[in-house]
Amino acid sequence: MSTTAVSVPMPAVPRRRRSPAAVAAAAPVAGPKRVLLAAPRGYCAGVDRAVIAVEKALEHYGAPVYVRKQIVHNVHVVSTLEERGAIFVEETDEVPEGALVVFSAHGVSPAVVQSAEDRKLRTIDATCPLVTKVHREAVRFAKANNHILLIGHEGHEEVEGTYGEAPESTTIVNNPAEARTVEVADPDHLIWLSQTTLSVDETMEIVKILRERFPKLQDPPSDDICYATTNRQVAIKQIAPQADLVIVVGSANSSNSVRLVEVALEYGAKASHRVDFANEIDESWFEGVATVGVTSGASVPEILVQDVLHLLAEYGYGGVEEVVTAEEDILFSLPKELRATLKAAGDTTRSLGGHGR
Asked: Has 158 been annotated as catalytic?
């Protein structure tokens, strides 16, 4: 059976750059050049856990290991795992019957789980535990006859998975404009949930609009926006007012990376750009820039940030000050299906995903 791989854009071909002297001559910089490096940044526990799950599956089961959708939203991570034998597909019907498939960190709907069972696929569920929490809330609230207003981006894998838990009881609200127009049958039994990787500020704006229209709207028992998304936004909020330029390392389909660019601009950065790789940085961005803020989305390995710092150093931004706004020590156990295999094999090299990778 043939498979249709998930399309992953290739890194841009390195190009000839203007020299640091030419950039400096075009727009001299007043004052010393510096870099403000956000902390926390990069991998969160859920991403770390999911990537380890695929790596361990390849080690113990051998290639190929199929993965439904991108395991995490990062071009570098996906291409690196492909080189090791992972095959990324859009749907389970592209996976040969009886083969091993990993569900991505963003989660899947019950219909996807059933499809895998129907095809007798062996599965490893690498859904982030924080996303799983939202799924369980959706099921519980729907059973209690509440209607769910799911704040998130329609079409995003995480939203599709959560919506699929209770489609008859869920309405997706994409933005403030939709919050102003959405209609519900019973405004007395409403609760809101959210995609875990949204902007905290935008989510609260949407909730405020919804509550003005539906005063009995209930809050979830705990915040759905994940700790890593919140922490990375808090860090860039502190850096942005001081930054002439903010560079966010992350992929275009990474919601939390895209949000970091927007947050940087909202909180005072003069310019902000997202890149997958250092070679995508346009040196013209440095013209007249004294302070560069740098951060990365929650699915970005640190090596990509270090590549950006090396490029910045070539252009005179050698002084790096880490701006620490939180310490992260969250750890998640690997998926239960994989833990049993590792235990049987005596593999104790890595059983947790999270801080310290």
From this structure: yes
